[in-house]
Design goal:
Strand 10 and strand 11 form a beta hairpin. The protein is α/β, with parallel strands linked by helices and 455 residues long. It has 14 helices and eleven strands. An eleven-stranded mixed β-sheet has the order 1-3-2-4-6-5-10-11-9-7-8, with helices on both faces. The model has no long low-confidence stretch (mean pLDDT 96). Bound molecules: glutamine (GLN). Glutamine binds next to loops.
């Protein structure tokens, strides 16, 4: 098959399903077809082409792409065309993939259902009455619907893993620092990571291989060698020690999710791995800690959207202060405003010690919980989310219930360790469940090894 045909297939599929799924915010058809033609014109030996040569990819809309509209699904950036490519995009270009378009998300990556997009909600391809998860809902839905072969998402508190679980695909949040954040529009800089969403674990490893590594443009990217992830896909988990936190199978986790994890553990046991119950005692504080820290960081990061430097500017303003106010009032959606207010409050003088500083201290306790378990075990396993996807509209009026949905993914970001979600059976409503496999810092290889064996 030629790259031209492959790219044509992608747009054909998009034409068939996109009015139902609504995964894309922007398509880049003309450029993608031209790129395909250029790649087809390349001559060389087969092994000179990388593994990703000519493959169609979708990119979450908070990752900047030169000259290609990047909105973060926010009205405030409705007309924003970046002047540079994110490092991950440059790396994918070097690997000669073809960018098909930009993917829908919750506005500025705040949300768990894609209902916070400033433009339109993405639907779950398995059943369009249900949410695809979020915030990388477009990234997961586009892969699940066969519109692209793979996509990039971002994960601050579960935004790659939870939509991957809801859409029955594979999504990895790498170790904090594994992948450059240069060109990722920041939500909470100390938690954000870009990662791959794919159909299979092997595809996921190929994609991580292409985007991982230290970057001089991102001081928080880590100078840690990138191993050969493909060599981890041996299918062998003999002797592997698995920890299962009792907090991940307890209160707030549905029976279906619990049973599917127990069934997966049985499979892994049959392959020679062993598992034991452990405790991550500070998990109960993770949600509060996350919403304090992530909102505090967001309130600072989003201060730059003032109508002067980026995107849309209100034309009703009568003074400079009024320009800021009008632009931000008109441009940001309700959830983004809620987080900015919460974060600004938590950082204000007089409250800093009680909230932000306290949350930082608890974050350390949560991180230590993980480190302690990893002294004795190779991976931690649990569900990705408490249940299958929920219906569109079901939780949107109740932010706290929506936040509670992230209890199983958030601790992983707070600890900075890698986590993957792989499909793990179906619920009674016919929608997919996800299994979460969590590894030690920079040990994506073991995470992939277990995920691949289970696949
Ligand atoms: N759902 C979580 C939130 O709303 C996580 C989002 C994310 O990982 N970007 O903050």
């Amino acid at each position: 098959i030629s790259v031209t045909d492959l790219v044509a297939e992608s747009y054909k599929r998009i034409a068939q399903v996109e009015d139902k799924v609504q995964a894309f915010l922007t398509l880049d058809e003309e450029n993608a077809r031209a790129k395909a033609k250029e790649l087809d014109g390349k001559v060389g030996k087969a092994d000179e082409y990388g593994l990703l040569f000519g493959l169609p990819i979708g990119v979450k809309d908070n990752i900047v792409t030169k000259g290609l509209r990047t909105t973060c699904a926010s009205k405030i950036l409705a007309n924003f065309d970046p002047i540079y490519d994110a490092t991950v995009v440059q790396k994918l270009q070097a690997a000669e993939t073809v960018t098909i378009g930009k993917l829908n998300m919750d506005e500025f990556a705040m949300g768990s259902s894609n209902e916070n997009s400033g433009f339109k909600p993405t639907k779950n391809p398995w059943n369009i009455e249900y949410v695809p998860g979020g915030s990388s809902g477009g990234s997961a839905a586009s892969v699940a619907a066969g519109e692209v072969l793979f996509s990039l998402g971002s994960d601050t508190g579960g935004s790659i893993r939870q939509p991957a679980a809801y859409c029955g695909v594979v999504g990895l949040k790498p170790t904090y620092g594994r992948v450059s954040r240069f060109g990722l529009v920041a939500f909470a800089s100390s938690l954000d990571q870009i990662g791959p969403i794919t159909r299979t674990v092997a595809d996921n490893a190929y994609l991580l291989q292409a985007i991982a590594g230290v970057d001089k443009m991102d001081g928080t990217s880590a100078p840690v060698d990138v191993p050969d992830y493909l060599s981890a896909l041996t299918g062998d988990v003999k002797g592997l020690r698995i920890a299962v936190p009792k907090e991940y199978l307890g209160e707030g986790v549905g029976e279906e999710a619990r049973q599917s994890v127990l069934a997966a553990l049985k499979v892994l046991e049959g392959m020679g791995a062993t598992w034991e119950e452990v405790s991550l005692p500070h998990s109960k504080y993770a949600l509060a800690t996350y919403y304090l820290l992530s909102s505090s960081e967001a309130s600072a990061n989003l201060a730059r959207f003032d109508g002067v430097r980026y995107g849309v500017r209100s034309d009703n303003a009568s003074s400079l202060i009024d320009l800021y106010k009008q632009t931000r009032s008109e441009g940001f959606g309700d959830e983004v405003k809620r987080r900015i207010m919460l974060g600004t409050f938590a950082l204000s003088s007089g409250y800093y010690d009680a909230y932000y500083k306290k949350a930082q201290q608890v974050r350390t306790l949560i991180k230590n919980d993980f480190e302690k378990v990893f002294e004795k075990y190779d991976v931690i396993i649990g569900p990705t989310a408490p249940s299958t996807a929920f219906k569109i509209g079901e939780k949107i009026d109740d932010p706290l219930t929506m936040y509670a949905n992230d209890i199983l993914t958030i601790p992983v970001n707070l600890a900075g360790v890698p986590g993957i979600s792989v499909p793990c059976g179906l619920g009674a409503n016919g929608l997919p469940l996800g299994l979460q496999i969590i590894g030690k810092h920079f040990d994506e290889s073991t995470v992939y090894r277990v995920a691949h064996a289970f696949e």
